[in-house]
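Support request, please re-run this one:
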Amino acid sequence: MNPPCADLPKLDHLGRADFLNVYEPSDDTYLFVDTLHAESDFINAKKPSVCAEIGGGSGCLTATLANVLASPAAFFITDINPSAASACKRTCEANKLRYGEVINMDLLVSLSDRMESVGIDIMLFNPPYVVTPSQEIASSDIASSWAGGVKGREVLDRFIPKLGKLMSTNGSFYVVAIEENVPEEICKLLLENGFATAKVISCRRAQNEKLMIIRADMAAA
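Re-run finished. Output below.
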């Protein structure tokens, strides 16, 4: 496993028993952590006030983003897995996030109206991206963190058409992908659904996967 170059947030409150039911930070998490630190100036220039993470898992990415931000923001974290939602809450507490709300739900289903009215400035998503049979994605346990269905993209493809309406006019969306997900198609879908730009901004080979982070911006640079 490739360790992150940047420091991880505080996670020692989570143990082996937690990671039986919650996705444990791994190479994709580490690439995301390093990318958020590398994007620090870009992110802070937006002066984000509302941030969200879909499928928060351990809460590592939201805690990292909170550490990157120069000023406080409100954080909304969702996960369909109740064990992951509980882990996220504990990570928010351990890392002293003052404005963190964790909700056990699919994507942002129950928050859509609320988010449309305020607009999300920074959104993070490490989606289930492993190519699997479609029936494996209908899960609310730890399998929901990796089973991605056809092209490993069924969950992401279901979310992208709703995404543009949830973002602020200057918002940015960060998402993990692998080669099997066909990242150029993901970028095309994002452009077709309200984003001005979409591109791969970082990548790393880990074991048999080429991991990458795509950033999509509502406003052109």
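The chain is about 30% helix and 25% strand. The chain has a mean pLDDT of 91.
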